[in-house]
Amino acid sequence: MKSKLVTLSILTLLLTACANNEAPVDDKSEEESTIEEKQTNDAAPEVAENIEFPEAELQKKDEGEPVLQLQEALTQIGYTIPTDGIYSDILSWAITDFQLQTEELDVTGIYDEETRIALKKVLEEGITIEAGVGLPPLAEPVFTDSGSEVTGNPYDLLAVVNKNQALPDHYEPHDLVVPDVAFPFEEDLPKKQLRAPAAEALEELFAAAEEAGHQLYAQSGYRSYDRQVALFDSYSQEHGEEEANVFSARPGESEHQTGLSMDITSEAVNYQLTTDFGNTPEGKWVAEHAHEFGFIIRYPEGKEEITQYQYEPWHLRYVGVRAATEIWENDLTLEEYFTEN
């Protein structure tokens, strides 16, 4: 099945239309209104009890009854979204917005067990959630100077960031941490950081590699928009902008800004970021096992026409175990994952 992508601008129209509906004039007495309000409040727990909360983890590309149940639960707390059983960009936005307004949840756009518990609590206890407060939807499409469309949900764990789809220039992940792994340098630099879910997964990946006899090193993770501006300008001055864009991203188009990517290396290649890493024992082990921890080789060999970047065996992107496994088993890129059946 093909994933059904829907722009967040459509969602904005839905929210606006809902907000513009004027309430009818109420001529009832204060006593009658109080009685009706009490009856409504008394019925609220009943509504929550009748809502089914999917047990399975759900994410973009999913379809069916569990997705429909999730959509119906979200409409109960105020989200004006389609109830079509398709986990689209709109549903990912709603989950992200809900996660941003709920303490102690990873903000991923993926419906997981922790989100299920929080959503059920909100419905049962009548907690107020205002759609769009956490992540305001884009009023209309926004494009960069180079023509890339700016994503309306940079928190999305499955966001595609490439030469056609960019991150907002102001976006900085709120959950950046330094993973407890080896680095070939001691300085406390921002590039040591990853978003919390990716950092935890990287620790598990490095530990498994070490157990298998391979010592990995993390070389470069999070990179801000401003830092990418400086890097790309430097590369462009040295190589020309077109050539620079083969191995470096324009500002906003770099996966490093997501906080979900880490460049890794090993002593065998003198801690450099080079294609030779793919031929080392460490590089070969990572290529075979990274998906088990939720990572993909983002720019694989032979897929340059699709990714529009050179082969980079060192560049890992965290997408979660489920998506990473499907991508690895079917020899896909992230782009193909969202376009293939």
TrEMBL record:
Keywords: Carboxypeptidase, Hydrolase, Protease, Signal. Gene3D superfamilies: 3.30.1380.10, PGBD-like superfamily/PGBD. Residues 192-320 form the D-alanyl-D-alanine carboxypeptidase-like core domain. It comes from the Bacteria. Residues 1-19 form the signal peptide. Pfam families: PG_binding_1 (PF01471), VanY (PF02557). PROSITE patterns: PROKAR_LIPOPROTEIN. Residues 64-119 form the Peptidoglycan binding-like domain. It comes from Oceanobacillus luteolus. GO terms for molecular function: carboxypeptidase activity. Residues 22-47 are annotated as: Disordered. This is D-alanyl-D-alanine carboxypeptidase family protein.
